Structure formats: structure tokens, C-alpha cells
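Re-running the complex after MR caught last week's input typo. The corrected sequence lines follow. Everything else is unchanged.
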Amino acid sequence: MTDVEGTAGWAEAAVREHAGEAERPSREEQVLERIDRARRRKARVKEEHVTMAHGSGGKATQSLIEAIFLEDFRNPLLEPLEDGAVFGVGSSRLAFTTDSYVVSPLFFPGGDIGDLAVNGTVNDLAVCGSRPLYLSAGFILEEGFPVEDLRRVTASMAGAAARAGVQVVTGDTKVVQRGKADGCYVNTAGVGLLDRPIGLSAAAARSGDAVIVSGPIGEHGVTIMLARGELDIEADLVSDTAPLNGLVAALLDACEGLPPEARRDAAPDVRPGVVRCMRDATRGGVATILNEIAHASGVAVVVEEDAIPVRPGVRGACELLGIDPLYVACEGRLVAVVDGAAADTALAALRAHPLGAGAALVGHVKDDPPGLVLLKTGFGGTRIVDLLVGDPLPRIC
Amino acid sequence: MTDVEGTAGWAEAAVREHAGEAERPSREEQVLERIDRARRRKARVKEEHVTMAHGSGGKATQSLIEAIFLEDFRNPLLEPLEDGAVFGVGSSRLAFTTDSYVVSPLFFPGGDIGDLAVNGTVNDLAVCGSRPLYLSAGFILEEGFPVEDLRRVTASMAGAAARAGVQVVTGDTKVVQRGKADGCYVNTAGVGLLDRPIGLSAAAARSGDAVIVSGPIGEHGVTIMLARGELDIEADLVSDTAPLNGLVAALLDACEGLPPEARRDAAPDVRPGVVRCMRDATRGGVATILNEIAHASGVAVVVEEDAIPVRPGVRGACELLGIDPLYVACEGRLVAVVDGAAADTALAALRAHPLGAGAALVGHVKDDPPGLVLLKTGFGGTRIVDLLVGDPLPRIC
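Corrected-run output:
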């Protein structure tokens, strides 16, 4: 596995020190304390202008969210910064989420901006533990965009919605002059119903939990990079874009031990479940999600490099690009943290579903060092997997 | 009042024939039948490429919506094409809506893209009869956009949310390269709770109903045009952007005759109310909304030109621009169709609210000619007010 392009500064330096000086624990402790101090520092945006890195899902995005959006909009529903907000209305619990899509190119092997926009919002709702119900669709179109391409996008959205069992119930269209957009941007927001009385949270991981991914990682991001034709690499890859609500339901059915009919409209007596947390690995890839979980739960996530499923085409392209597949976006892969005792049940449930056939146990949660993701490499070393600083793969979703 | 720039083709021709040949009713009937036939025709998008007109809110937007979005996404919740979708979850009824904002310039007298995006979605929820609760915020930022401007936008959104009593609970940020956006685009979606058992619909207007606007029209659109500095006109105008949920609640409280506490969590025994329909007049202005209502209800809407409140600055600018204020966007004005017998009650309720001080009865609903909006001019003539074909005021929201 190549070094991580874009993960720079103190954290990576820390990894090198960490690896090389195991015999001097006081030094290691100093490093971890320095990392901890830096992380507890109030987020701020140092840049005067927005850069591509602010859209990467990595460190810069996190600063922007914490220093500006969270600061201005602060409220108890937003604050957990999960993939969607969960709130009660009457006797129901609902999830609500949004994502804008600016992927380039609009059409790529395995999908397009349309099914990506539907699947992405369906997935954000699903990983909140909700059953996705209704979507909105907001289009920003560039003057001159071919109407035929718009038809392809909406047809693709309609197909994806049908496959996921959701409906697009409201929408909006804006048109901007030539050169003020890039063909077509799509926003989808979504509403889902939490019909299981469980509470999922990135802060719920605890020592002994198992970390599972639902299949090979990085296919979407690499497919987009290759589809741009900027690289002279050929690989037989297609995007993994897919709706994860069926897979998530299968996992929860198996792990939470209640038949679905018993859970429908159950009293909202929310309790922590065997499944602690789920995320779909998009921008920033699996590495970013694991960092969010480690940070929110105050735990260490230890991942085995050799256990991470990566198809040869993705691995090869990543090596040529100098990117770690752990940071590459998927659009149809689930990361789940489950009670260690339920790992086999969870894996079996995922593998029994077509979208989870390649599910793998990739690591475990430990108490120390809190807030960090550690990768045990194939060569027997350990390195810290931090958030990305730059954006090696812009506009992949 | 000047002629309407942009309303072209058969409808405007029809107006001229109509006005000049009252002594030949058979000719008039032919014209109306021709209009009716054209309107019943299946919508289709004739253009091969998206034009600015597709974003105007007028005829081209309508064709795009009906021929592409409605065609592909068709479902009973989307089909009414109201400002938001209304659906039941558990024992509650919810409204769900979305809008993207691409206004240029981002900052203008009286507001900016931030409060516009919050108020717009709050208003769409309010006119569905719901109490706006939660908003999402999706940002598409252009690389190089000043972080300080982003802070101004989010601070403005936070202020608008606080004033409207809603919370931004989930969000998303994307960044695109220079030249692929225009600084900052914002999408807001929103969820509201219908805690009154009334059904509002553009299809609910009936003969004898009164048509009311909550204040002077066209201020937002003209303010934006002037803020672009492309015209050498000076006028002391500010945008009317404002959250209408308080005003709407005041209107419903007065007209529906139930104290608010009696309505909270009332059984969802939905019934048509004294208030038939409400809309906030944005893109396409009051004229577009009245056309939608006339069309959906199969009624005529007859408006008195002299009764329409227009501030002198707006009137003057519109005359110089060759635009009819009826087509100019407001962002804080309500159009309500109410039972004729309740018109005085409705007007009094609106006028008692700071945002409705300038409310006026501007017209009535009649049976014939169905589907048309007629304007009785100050000179005693009558003309048809059709949907706009072009887009004289692009990117005003």
C-alpha cells in the first residue's frame, strides 16, 4: 500500500515517530497528547478563500463545518453531525438529510448523477436506522445543458427511486447562465421513518466492538477518476452506487433480534443496540468514517490492512495514482460497528444479501489510543490513518 | 401599466382579439377554445437545450416540470405540484419542500442568499398550511469564494431561522472548481407539521372566492435587478424577503375559527377550509400563481388592476424595464384565495400583522372563462394575464 497522498503535517509525522520509537513510550505519549490537544482545539478556518479541500470530506471540510456551519446553526439535532438529523414528530421518529451532487462527469460506468443522488440520500437515511420514504429533488441547470441529458438523469433517478422503494415528492429547478455551473447539479433531501426503537450513533462504539465493511472499497472514486480520461489507465471498473436500505434492514433484522412486524410503530423507547453505528463510505472513504467514529466515541479503531477488501483494479489504479483506497469514495458500501459478540451474525446477514456478498470484518475497537484510527499493515507495522488534508479526488459525488 | 414583455404567442394575440372584438362573441369563443385546446395538450419540451426561460417559473418551466419531472417521478404526492408535498406519518401530517437558490448578486438591499433561502423554504411550508420545523442546508461553493462571505451567508441564515422559529438540523457542502458555479448556491429543504385539519389546494378555488395579496408586489425582483447595476435607475427599494409563517398562522387562526390549542394534534380529519389556497409569490410573480390556481381549479380569476398594491419605485422601475409588476417576484408576499364571505375577516387578520399591513383584496374568482386570469385595467379594458414565455428577470432567487 502506498503512502497516503494528502495526509500531511503533524499526524503523519506522528505515525513515523510512533512506528520507529516503540521503546520510548514517553515520546509516544507526548505525540498522542499533542494530537489530542490539537484535536480539542476550537475549529477555525484559516484560509481566506474556499479551496477544493473544503469539499473533500477531510480535515478542511471538518473545520468548515465546525467553525462556520455548526457555530452558526448550533442546535441539539445538528450537533451530533451524523449523516442525518433524527427528531420526533407526534409518536413517530423521523430522519432528515440532504446532499448536493456535483459529480464530474455526469455519466460514468455503473451510474450517473441521477442514481447517485437518489442512492446517496437513501443511504444517509438508512444508516440513521430509518426506512427511507420521500425524497426532494432540486436541479441547478446550466443554460445550454442538453434536454436529452436531463431526461437521462431524471429517468435514472426514477429507476433508482423505484429500486429503493422511495418517491420523489417535491422538487425545484433553477437555470444559471453558461459558465455558471457545470451542466447539472442535483440536490436531494430525504425523509425516513425510524420504525425500530434503537439509537445509532458514531459516539456509541466501545472497546471490543467489531468493524465491518459490506464489500470491496474504493470502486466509485476510482471509476470517476478513470471516467475523466485524465489518466491513461484502463481498468474494468464500475461505480458501486447502490441503495443500502435493504442491506441495512437485513443487518438490523438479524442483529436486533426482533421480527420487523414487532418493531413497526413500536413505542419510541430508544435503546442502544447491538449495532452501534452505521455509515455509508462516501467522500473521504472508509478512513474518514472510522476517524469520525473513533473521535466521537473516544476510542481507538484498529484495522487490519490485509482484511480490507479491495479489488485488484482499484488497488492497481490507486497505486498508480498514489492514493490509499481507504480514502477513496464508495457509494454503495456500508461501514458498521457492531457488538463483537454479534460479529458473525452481522457478517452472515450482510453476506446473505446481494449487496453484501463481499462483507468483511476489517478491525476492532479498543480503548487506546482514544480518537485514533490505527492500521496494522501487511508488513507488521502500525500507522495512524488520519483525516485527509487535501483533496486528491475532487467532485466524485 | 405597460405591455408585458415576454408574454408572447397565441395568448397575447388572443388578448388583443378579445379586447377589440367584443361584438363578435363567436370569435371570442373560438379564441378561448383554442387556448383551452392548447392547454390540454400534453406538455412537451420542444427545445433541445435548457434555456434561461426554463428557470423563469413561466411556461417553459411548466413544460419542463410536466414533460420531464412529473413524467418520470409521477406519484400522487408530487402530482398536485403544490409548493410542498403533504403526507401522513403515524398520526401526523407533514409537509416537505425544497428550493435551490442561485440569486445574483448574493447580497442585495434588504437581504442576501442566506435569509432568502431560509425564508423561501419556510414560506413554502407555511403556505401548505404547515408549521415549519426543520430545515436542511446544502451549499455548492465555487473554489475561491471568500470565506468571509460564506460567514455572512450562514449568519444571515441563522438569523432568519431564529426569526422564523425553525432549526437548520442537517447540511452538506460541495466545492466546485473556479468557473463552475457563481460564488455560492444554496439549497434548503424543509419539513413542517400540519397541525390544523384543513386541506389547502390550488384546485380548491370556487366562484365567489376573494383573492387577496398581503402587501405591495414586485419589490424583491426589482431590487435584485437594480442591485446588479446594469440599469441606470436609482430607487429606494429593498427586498421584501420575510418569513410568512406568522402571517399565515394569523390568517388561519382568524378564518378557520378554532383556537390554536384546539387544533394541535387534532385528528387528521382533513376538510376544505374557508381559506382555499395560499401561495408565496416568488418567480413569475402574482400572475403566475393566479394562473396556476385558475388552471388547477378550472375557474377564472378576475383581478382589478387598480386594486393591486405596487409601490411607486417598483412601478417606475417596471415601466422603464418594460415589465409588468404582476410578473415580478416577491419573497415575502402571500397570495390567498378565501371564501368571499370571509374576505373582510381575512383582510383584517392580515392587516393586523406587521407583514400584512398593506394587504389588499385584488380580485375574485368566477366560473368563466375557466383556466384564465383576466385583468380589468384602469382604462376599463380587460386583458388575459398568461404565463410568461421568456425570462425577463433571471436568477432573482
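None of the earlier attempt is carried over here. Chain B touches chain A through 81 residues (CB under 8 Å). The first helix of chain B runs from residue 10 to 20.
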